[in-house]
Design goal:
four-stranded antiparallel beta sheet; alpha/beta; 8 helices; six-stranded mixed beta sheet; nucleotide-binding; globular; ABC transporter ATP-binding protein; 2 domains; ABC_carbohydrate_import_ATPase; 29% helix; P-loop_NTPase; Rossmann fold; single chain
């Protein structure tokens, strides 16, 4: 595990008209680790991911990638840095096979013809590098695959392009027990291969099974970033639902009006790396 984050966000703000969705958000993702991004519906998780991936421009804040400040103004900028996102809908085409899906929009060519042998070889090597054994043929249409196999193809597609950071949006949603276990094993393997992984999940069992760190969003604010070993299931639930748990999260403030409003001060625990 590295002591230096691959991706570091500082002071990220994002508003849509009068609605401020993200407020002074900080987030760190480390190579070789899985960072679980948790939060209730409407906490700002999807907006934050779309800012990282260049879909939404930020109103304020700084991106630091691999130790240097960067600007991410489009999905192409994110991809060139090595940031890939696997969204919940997977963005796969049912009428195409696995190889065609993995290279969709980035096809290899030999002159004016598609270089099918090279693409098939690269797809096979990528799946083998992830120890994927559940796919019978690279030429299977995606429509014939199970939910777990589809998720596997989407993840393999993301890591095919020398990616350094992979963001997974609810990868085990709607999967059965056995398929969930396969996908979580693959998520862990990504980190073990040296990639930085950000896992968005509502499933606390999944979060505690594979994550090294947990980052909790509450109403657009990052209220805690802690090592998974330093926090309990109950504390994470409290951070998600109330923004604070004991000494973690938004501090209770008793102002002159005595109303006990929550302040913007946050306690962040980052164990030694």
């Amino acid at each position: 595990m590295s002591a230096t984050p691959l991706l570091e966000l500082r002071g990220i703000d994002k508003s849509f008209g009068p609605v401020q969705v993200l407020r002074d958000v900080a987030l760190s993702a480390y190579p070789g680790e899985v960072t679980a991004l948790v939060g209730d519906n409407g906490a700002g998780k999807s907006t934050l991911v779309k800012c990282i991936s260049g879909i939404y421009p930020t109103d304020a804040g700084e991106f630091v990638f691999d130790g240097r400040p960067v600007s991410i103004n489009s999905p192409r900028d994110a991809a060139e840095l090595g940031i890939e996102v696997v969204y919940q809908d997977l963005a796969l085409c049912d009428n195409l096979d696995i190889v065609q899906n993995m290279f969709l929009g980035r096809e290899k060519r030999n002159g004016i013809m598609l270089d099918e042998p090279t693409m098939e070889q690269m797809a096979a090597e990528t799946l083998a590098g992830l120890s994927v054994r559940t796919v019978k043929s690279l030429r299977q249409h995606v429509s014939s695959l199970s939910g777990g196999q589809r998720q596997t193809v989407a993840i393999a597609k993301a890591v095919l392009w020398n990616s350094k950071l992979v963001i997974l949006d609810e990868p085990t949603a709607a999967l059965g027990v056995a398929q969930t276990a396969q996908v979580l094993e693959l998520v862990r393997r990504l980190a073990d291969n040296g990639l930085a992984v950000v896992l968005i999940s509502h499933n606390m069992n999944d979060v505690f099974a594979v994550s090294d760190r947990i980052a909790a969003l509450y109403l657009g604010q990052m209220v805690a970033q802690v090592r998974t070993t330093d926090i309990t299931h109950a504390q994470v639930v409290e951070l998600i639902t109330a923004g604070r748990s004991g000494g973690l999260g938004l501090a209770a403030e008793t102002g002159a009006n005595g109303n006990g409003a929550a302040s913007a001060d946050r306690t962040t625990t980052e164990g030694a790396s």
